[in-house]
Amino acid sequence: MRSEAIDESDRLYTEYITTQLGQLRRLAIVLCQDSHRADDLVQEAITKLYTRWHRRHAIDHLDRYLRSILVREFLDSQRVGWMRRVRLAAESPEMVSPQADSVEDRMVVRALLGQMPARQRAVVVLRFMCDLPVDEVAEILGCSEGTVKSQTSAGLVTLRRHVGGVSDGAPSPRSVAVRS
After folding, report:
1. DSSP 52
2. 137 Cβ partners below 8 Å, 6+ apart?
3. Residues 6+ apart with CB under 8 A from 142
4. What top-level class would CATH report for the domain 2-175?
5. Cβ contact 157:169 at 8 Å
6. What's the distance, CA 123 to chain centroid?
7. Distance CA 42, CA 56 (A)
8. Of 138, 118, 134, whose CA–CA distance to 74 is shortest?
9. d(CA 156, CA 159)
10. How many of the other CB atoms lie within 10 Å of CB of 54?
């Protein structure tokens, strides 16, 4: 009887991960700027979730919890610096942002995200790629809403400065519609 319950739990876990894997990998690629590192990051996140799978019923939003694990693993890897980063090419051809309007826009956004500090990149990606509200990003990153807002603002200023938009903090026509 116990092995049947374990088999059912494993089946549910596999089904859940199968539905989340694509989105999780896209998020990891944008954060890491490297598809191989992103795969490692996704593996770490889904492994951590598996070790806590028996507590899934106590978790209100499983998708948010899994994204939180992924982002925290990314930030931890940036702090610890467990590997030496060597960039062999200026751009990784596998990284694609479904939100960008053109190939040139995607290339510019990827390059700019790669230049941002890890935490600021995580905030910008969660806010605009994952379309999460400030309070949810704050919860995922374990920081205050004010920190999320200031990191978002700094990230947008960086993007605007390099893309040719305004850099003095005045809202651009596209940024007015963005919720804070």
Report:
1. T
2. 123, 126, 127, 148
3. 72
4. mainly alpha
5. yes
6. 8
7. 18
8. 118
9. 5
10. 11
For 6, phi then psi, to 5°, come to: -65, -45
Is there a contact between 70 and 132 (Cβ–Cβ < 8 Å)?
A: no
Tell me: the pLDDT tens digits for 91-134? 544 544 444 467 787 777 888 888 889 899 999 999 988 888 99
CA distance to 26, 111, 116, 167, per residue, from 172 (Å): 27, 21, 21, 10
DSSP 8-state symbol, 171: P
Alpha carbon 31 to its chain centroid, in Å, reads: 5
Chain segment 56-97, per-residue pLDDT in tens: 888 888 999 999 999 999 988 887 655 545 454 555 445 444
The amino acid occupying position 126 is L
- Per-domain boundaries in the chain: 2-175
